[in-house]
Backbone:
């Protein structure tokens, strides 16, 4: 018998997790939960899942071993807490918790109970980014001095938008949705930055949330980084993430498809100059494919962590580090905009007083 | 189905190996005219089937083909629906039910019902699915569409959640309304064949990734080779070059050596690549026996086996 699993939230990610989990031989999806009665009606009629409208009821009654949480970000912490009380293993969508201190506490709670807590940062399961991590960690690029991380794509292209993704209080916005991936890739490949500066988080179309985020990242090693995330960029067909790393012995550029490496002095199997490896060589095959190998690979990893107690590659703990960086970005952005507003206020009052001074001097000189 | 079909990934910035190549293609094919020019190379090379998504630009190509009926006398479309990004983006922006409402035709009874307060939830799935299919098929009005495919993201999602009946709904509607054969694109060939069998779809047309490198062949290359030997279905092979990971001749030689591969779909942007790929497939596809001869032999063999079984029982 597989891991008896319940799934909470049947939005875009939830329905995809449902299909992948249901196809996995190690998982028995026994229950699903969503607040939308219409969706539940369709599933009740056409599939064998037990359907719940209340997550509390499902966690209490369905006799589960594990739960997959893919609800709006604001509800993650509460649902994770409830699931841990029932001693369940948890796969939670990203970002983990809007309050990083809560994320750290939940990571500790999961560890003390010996439960697997994984967060859906699926780029950690993409072959090109895994290889980039190996290259960086093994020192092929020498001392790292700068990292550029980017996430661009077409999510919000006009002012309308009725889902939770358009509401800051629910954990919507480009910072939580797109920039979180760009930050987590850096945390995975190199390390989490300890400080950020010069953050701009601004709206292009959205009324309540940011659509683009830019910032400078500072690492303990002395290296710096640049973050650029924009979810209103429809020059990309779908979300595109890219990381560029400069080190004392070369450079690496990785996206989902391709890894380009430039090596200054030969090291290990790399001769001097450019090397290109792409996803066809770097992807491990999966047993069921939907939208990308990485989505299956991350759930397969979840199962292996539960069964074999492997170390989790995208744990509550690493996700809480990413939450901490997100919070630093949010507070730096709001401090910065407050400073700019103050500057603007000062500048405009200076302009006003200069105007009156000039006027007075003209009048005086005429007289 | 023809042995060689022309695909459309290159037109829509889809490249599994490189984002830079994908972007360069998106720049080159920013209007329907540039796509038509390449399609004409394919037609000149006697590749007369265009297997395409229901992207808005394809509607313009369809219009061009309608207007130039003589030039495209033997030309056929194999529509692949839905154009998934349209749905995915609408779902992220509006949520699943509102996304459906946005995508359904604005005019007609459904729209009137919705305005009248009838919720989507109370309607039956079959009726809704048929409306969505009709909305996607509108652009091909008056054109030949002998095979209509369900895109892999939808096929595989339905397969994953175990909603087999949905395949039956799709197949029925395509057969009844469009007098066409339903086809299913998948990245999960072996389990899909089981699901289609459960849904009562016999000898289905299935399009899937097949390449010597085993790239994107879920469950492994040997599982695919095994069902090709043992199951009855009509296969369209895609991604045979594995995004350039295998040299063309070697790649096509492998696919042509497999039993039961009826067609091969490929995409290319230059006249030279189109001509060369078509020539290679023709050359490596059992030159002395035509496809129809092969299928009549198969038919005779099946009849023979049935007769034997009757005798034995």
Residues:
């Amino acid at each position: 018998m597989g891991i008896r699993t319940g799934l909470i939230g049947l939005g875009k990610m939830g329905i995809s997790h449902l299909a992948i989990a249901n196809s996995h031989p190690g998982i028995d999806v026994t229950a699903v939960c969503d607040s939308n009665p219409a969706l539940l009606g369709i599933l009740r009629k056409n599939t064998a899942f037990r359907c719940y409208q209340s997550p509390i009821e499902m966690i209490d009654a369905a006799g589960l071993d594990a739960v997959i949480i893919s609800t709006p970000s604001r509800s993650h912490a509460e649902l994770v807490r409830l699931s841990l009380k029932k001693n369940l293993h948890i796969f939670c969508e990203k970002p983990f918790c809007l309050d990083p201190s809560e994320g750290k506490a939940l990571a500790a709670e999961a560890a003390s109970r010996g439960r697997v807590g994984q967060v859906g940062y699926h780029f950690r399961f993409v072959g090109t980014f895994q290889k980039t991590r190996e290259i960086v960690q093994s020192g092929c690029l020498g001392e790292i001095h700068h990292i550029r991380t980017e996430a661009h794509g077409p999510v919000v292209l006009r002012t309308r938008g009725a889902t939770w993704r358009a509401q800051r209080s629910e954990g919507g916005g480009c910072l939580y949705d797109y920039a979180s991936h760009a930050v987590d890739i850096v945390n995975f490949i190199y390390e989490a930055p300890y400080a950020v500066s010069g953050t701009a988080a601004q709206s292009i179309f959205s009324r309540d949330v940011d659509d683009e985020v830019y910032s400078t990242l500072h690492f303990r090693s002395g290296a710096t980084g640049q973050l650029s995330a924009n979810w209103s960029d429809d020059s990309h067909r779908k979300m595109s993430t890219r990381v560029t790393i400069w080190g004392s012995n070369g450079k690496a550029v990785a996206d989902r498809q391709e890894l380009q490496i430039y090596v200054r002095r030969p090291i290990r199997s790399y001769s001097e100059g450019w090397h290109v490896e792409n996803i066809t060589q770097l992807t491990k095959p999966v047993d069921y494919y939907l939208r990308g190998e990485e989505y299956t690979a991350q759930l397969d990893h979840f199962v292996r962590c539960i069964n074999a107690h492997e170390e989790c590659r995208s744990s509550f703990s690493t996700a809480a580090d990413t939450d901490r960086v997100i919070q630093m970005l949010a507070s730096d952005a709001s401090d910065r905009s407050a400073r700019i507003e103050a500057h603007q206020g000062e500048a405009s009052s200076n302009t006003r007083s200069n105007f009156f001074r000039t006027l007075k001097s003209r009048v005086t000189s005429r007289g | 189905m023809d042995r060689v079909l022309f695909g459309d990934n290159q037109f829509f910035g889809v490249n599994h190996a490189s984002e830079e190549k994908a972007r360069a293609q998106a720049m080159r094919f920013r209007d329907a005219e540039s796509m038509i020019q390449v399609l004409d190379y394919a037609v000149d090379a006697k590749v007369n089937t265009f297997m395409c998504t229901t992207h808005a630009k394809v509607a313009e190509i369809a219009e061009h083909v309608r207007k130039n009926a003589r030039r495209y006398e033997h030309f056929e479309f194999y529509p692949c629906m839905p154009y998934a990004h349209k749905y995915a983006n609408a779902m992220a922006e509006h949520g699943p039910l509102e996304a459906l409402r946005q995508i359904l035709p604005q005019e007609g009874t459904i729209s009137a019902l919705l305005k009248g307060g009838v919720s989507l939830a109370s309607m039956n799935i079959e009726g809704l699915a048929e409306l969505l299919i009709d909305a996607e098929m509108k652009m091909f009005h008056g054109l030949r569409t002998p095979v209509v495919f369900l895109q892999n993201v939808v096929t595989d999602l339905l397969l994953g959640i175990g909603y087999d009946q949905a395949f039956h709904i799709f197949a029925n509607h395509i057969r009844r309304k469009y007098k066409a054969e339903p086809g299913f694109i998948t990245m999960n060939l072996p389990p899909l064949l089981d699901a289609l069998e459960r849904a009562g779809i016999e000898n289905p047309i299935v399009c899937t990734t097949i390449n010597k490198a085993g790239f994107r062949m879920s469950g492994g290359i040997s599982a695919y080779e095994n069902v090709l030997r043992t199951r009855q279905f009509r296969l369209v092979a895609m991604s045979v070059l594995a995004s350039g990971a295998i040299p063309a001749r070697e790649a096509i030689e492998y696919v042509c050596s497999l039993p039961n591969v009826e067609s091969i779909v490929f995409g290319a942007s230059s006249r030279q690549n189109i001509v060369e790929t078509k020539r290679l497939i023709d050359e490596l596809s059992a030159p002395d026996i035509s496809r129809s001869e092969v299928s009549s032999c198969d038919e005779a063999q099946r009849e023979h086996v049935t007769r034997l079984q009757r005798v034995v029982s």
